[in-house]
Design brief:
This protein folds into 2 domains: 1-76 and 148-158 and 180-252, Rossmann fold; 79-146, no CATH class. It is built from 8 helices and 9 strands. It has helices at 51-58, 94-98, 106-115, 131-143, 161-178, 189-195, 212-216, 219-225, and strands at 11-22, 25-36, 40-44, 66-71, 77-80, 149-153, 181-185, 198-203, 205-210. The strands form 2 sheets. It has a 6-stranded mixed β-sheet with strand order 5-6-7-3-8-9, sandwiched between helices. A 3-stranded antiparallel β-sheet has the order 2-1-4, covered by helices on one side. 39% of the residues are buried.
Length: 252
C-alpha cells in the first residue's frame, strides 16, 4: 500500500536557509529541508558533517546563526539518543527509569513498553540490560509522549545486525501505528537505504537528497561513501514493510 503524495498540510517541520556557527566556524550552511507526516527521513554523512547539530537545532538545543526552523504548533517530539550513560552501581529498575523525571500513569508505561518490545522488562535492572533491550526502553520512554515526530540519533549504535534489524522493524510498526514522522541519524548506510523513504546526505552543506536509490546513484554520495556501499545482498535481513510517500526532491 502506498501513501498519497505529500501535501502542504502534511508538513511537520520546515527548515529554510539554515546555517549554524560555533565560534567563527560554520558547521551547517544554507540547509533547506522538509519533514512530512508518515515519512521516514534519514540523515547521513561523514563524521563532523553536522547531522547531530541539525537534530539539536530542530529540537531547540542549538540556535541557528541564520535561517529558520519551523515546527508545527503543538507537535509532540519523542527523542531516542545515540547513547545514555547511567551509573552501573545504581540499582535502578526500568520502571523507575521510565518514570523520570515525572511519574507516568502505570497503564501508559506498560503500553509504551509493550509497543517498544520491552513489556517483559518493567522490573529489570537497567544496568543488566543488553544493548538492544536498553534501546527498546529508550524508545518506550520516547513513545510516552505519543510523538508526532520520532527522532533517533544513531539509536542502533553498538547493536549487532540482528538487533539493528529488529529495532528498525519496531520503528516501522511505530510509524504505522502513530502516523508519525521518523527522523533518523545513522552511519549504517545499507540499513538506511532499505528503511528510509527519503535520504538526506550532509557534509556541512546539503550534498544530495531524495529516494534511497537516487541518492545512492548520486555522484556526491559516491564521492563520500563509494559506489559499492549500497547493494541488495542480504536485503532479507532488513526486509521491512515500506510506504513510499511522494518524493520531496531528486538527488543531485
Amino acid at each position: 500500500m502506498e501513501l498519497a503524495p505529500n501535501t502542504p498540510d502534511d508538513v511537520l517541520v520546515s527548515i529554510s536557509h539554515l546555517s549554524v556557527r560555533f565560534g567563527s566556524e560554520f558547521v551547517l550552511e544554507n540547509i533547506d529541508l522538509t519533514l512530512y507526516r508518515h515519512q521516514i527521513l534519514t540523515l547521513i554523512g561523514p563524521n563532523g558533517s553536522g547531522k547531530s547539530t541539525l537534530v539539536k537545532t530542530l529540537i531547540g538545543a542549538v540556535k541557528p546563526a541564520t535561517g529558520s526552523v519551523r515546527v508545527g504548533a503543538g507537535l509532540r517530539i519523542g527523542y531516542v539518543p545515540r547513547r545514555l550513560h547511567l551509573d552501573p552501581t545504581l540499582p535502578m529498575t526500568v520502571k523507575r527509569f521510565i518514570n523520570l523525571p515525572h511519574r507516568q500513569a502505570p497503564a501508559a508505561v506498560e503500553h509504551a513498553l509493550d509497543e517498544a518490545g520491552a513489556g517483559h522488562l518493567l522490573q529489570a535492572t537497567m544496568s543488566h540490560l543488553s544493548g538492544g533491550q536498553f534501546q527498546r526502553v529508550l524508545l518506550a520512554r520516547a513513545l510516552l509522549t505519543r510523538p508526532d515526530i520520532l527522532i533517533l540519533d544513531e539509536a542502533t549504535q553498538g547493536l549487532d545486525q540482528r538487533g539493528t534489524a529488529e529495532f528498525y522493524r519496531r520503528i516501522e510498526a511505530v510509524r504505522q501505528r502513530y502516523g508519525c514522522a521518523v527522523l533518523m541519524v545513522s552511519h549504517d548506510l545499507n540499513v538506511v537505504m532499505r528503511t528510509a523513504d527519503h535520504v538526506v546526505c550532509l557534509n556541512r552543506t546539503l550534498c544530495c537528497q531524495g529516494k534511497p536509490e537516487r541518492v545512492a546513484a548520486s555522484p556526491d554520495y559516491q564521492a563520500l561513501f563509494g559506489e559499492t556501499l549500497f547493494n541488495r545482498e542480504g536485503a532479507d535481513a532488513f526486509a521491512l514493510y515500506r510506504h513510499h510517500p511522494g518524493e520531496v526532491a531528486d538527488a543531485g
